[in-house]
Amino acid sequence: MDNVEILVQKITDIIIQRLQKEESRGTVTFLGKEYLSIRTYYERRGYEIVPVKDKFNPDIVIVTELSILSMNRIALGLPQTEDEVTIWKRLLNKKDVIFLEEGMEIQTSQHVAPRALLQVLVNYKNQLVRYGASIFPLKNFEERDQTINKEVKDVIHKSDKKELLTIAKVRKLNLQAGDIFETDKNIIITALARDYMRDLGVQIV
After folding, report:
1. Collapsing DSSP states into helix, strand and coil, what is residue 133?
2. Helix ranges, the chain (H)
3. β-strands 163-165, 48-49: how paired?
């Protein structure tokens, strides 16, 4: 098994060497109000913030305002507005969508809505997560800069050499839903490891 990992690492090194010159910055766009703390979080990690009207598809869409009606329509697969269609298409294609918890109308309604109705709304909210979306509070972008990556150093020794992050290595990190995993140019995440983290509800940046 060790020989297989060594072989995979060597092949990865060769491929990365060929692709290094083609590396480009990731892109992030906001649907709704733009938050300085979130913008700063991604800019520090090399992402470019792009206008929502840009024709090319950003790597990450952050939804900072979501009404209850919009949430319900997306959860039911019945998007109507342009933003809802954008969100729905991204979920269909397994592309990153992050909902800001404080920007979801359900957060302000949970103390006044009847219990039975609130349960229905919570189910719709949870459906978005089952579709592959992430829901994070604002504090995740303000306080979690180094939390997860301190644990990564115990599994992957960062250097100038490219390292392959396999599903076996990810399991050792004991990640949980809501965690933000910060990668860098020296870490290559396998497709299985990436899918595993997505299923856990971990956001990769």
Report:
1. coil
2. 2-19, 36-43, 68-75, 82-92, 105-109, 115-130, 139-143, 147-152, 167-171, 191-200
3. unpaired
DSSP 8-state symbol, 154: T
The Cα-based distances of 146 to 59, 151, 180, 202 in angstroms read: 22, 9, 10, 15
**177 contacts 202 by C-beta, under 8 angstroms:** yes
* Cβ atoms of residues 204 and 191 within 8 Å: no
Distances (CA, A) of 4 to 8, 11, 167: 6, 11, 14
Strand partners of residue 89: none
- Which DSSP category does 16 fall into? H
Q: Where on the phi/psi map is residue 131: left (φ > 0), alpha (ψ -120 to 50), or beta?
A: alpha
Q: Residue 185 and residue 197: Cα distance in Å, rounded?
A: 18
Tokens of 174: 């004991």
Instruction: Kindly report, residue by residue over 107-163, the tens digit of the pLDDT.
Output: 888 778 888 888 999 999 999 999 999 999 988 887 554 444 555 555 455 455 677
Structure tokens of 155?
Answer: 């599994």
Give the integer Cα–Cα distance in Å for 88 and 18. Answer: 35
